Amino acid sequence: MHVGSLAIKVSADKAANRSFLIDRHGEVVARYDKIHMFDVDLASGESYRESRNYRAGELAVLADLPWGRLGLTICYDLRFPALYRALAEAGASFLSIPSAFTKQTGEAHWHVLLRARAIENGCFVFAAAQGGTHENGRETFGHSLAIDPWGRVLAEGGVEPAVVLADVDLAAIAGARARIPSLQHGRRFEILEPMAEPSHLHVVGGPT
To answer: What is the model's pLDDT at position 197?
Structure first.
């Protein structure tokens, strides 16, 4: 059982946004603290400062399931593809992304980002999502998703509480990675910064 996101007090003034993985014996076998903090001011006037109350995690976390390796992430992590590539390169076949996307960002980006993470890494994505209007007036998008490694949506929830079920074909992982072997082709590289323009050269059309 994956417990997606809980506020766990870690200091006098900060909590961690933490997920837990619990095995069939009731033992906690993995825990993950959300790495990326959601600090943003929206055009609607909404403002979020997750870092005010939460301490960012520092470690990416993998856990072995009976069916393969799971990479644990939370919500805003979704916007940082390097994290998911690192998890996939370390053997993840499944990615968990429990989230509380705002209604506005969810409508614009939720489906496309989750499908992209599945496709880029040849992984199943499981994203339980909070939805509806909350006591403080905040609206979250909902639409829990299960997505296969080819980017196909296997199951989708709505805004109201529900149970979402999907059949998972493990052969789809190897199949997707064989068709698009990008995990084998990834290369590390350095960035060549723009060279300073030599002082004796002049820009065409510019001052001489």
So the answer is: 62
Token pair listed for 90: 């370390």
Containing domain of residue 35, as a range? 2-185
Core vs surface per residue 169-206: b (16+ CB within 10 A) or e? eeebbeebbeeeeeeeeeeeeeeeeeeeeeeeeeeeee
Phi, psi dihedrals of residue 28, rounded to the nearest 5°:
-75, 115
Per residue in 155-186, pLDDT tens? Answer: 999 999 999 999 999 999 999 999 999 999 98
pTM over 0.85: yes
Between CA 36 and CA 14 the distance in angstroms is 15
- The CA-atom distances, in angstroms, between 13 and each of 8, 110, 148 are 11, 31, 40
Instruction: Establish if 114 belongs to a structural domain.
Output: yes
Cα 155 to Cα 126: distance, rounded to the nearest angstrom: 10
Q: 111-121 and 81-89 helices cross at what angle (nearest 10)? A: 30
- Check which CATH number belongs to the domain holding 43 and give it: 3.60.110.10
Domains: count for the chain: 1
Going by C-alpha positions, the residue among 89, 93, 109, 90 that lies closest to residue 101 is 109
In a domain, 70, yes or no: yes
| N-terminal to C-terminal alpha carbon distance within the chain | 70
Q: For 90-141, how does the pLDDT look when each residue is reduced to its tens digit (9 = 90+)?
A: 999 999 999 999 998 999 999 999 999 999 999 999 999 999 998 888 899 9
Say if 191 falls within a structural domain: no
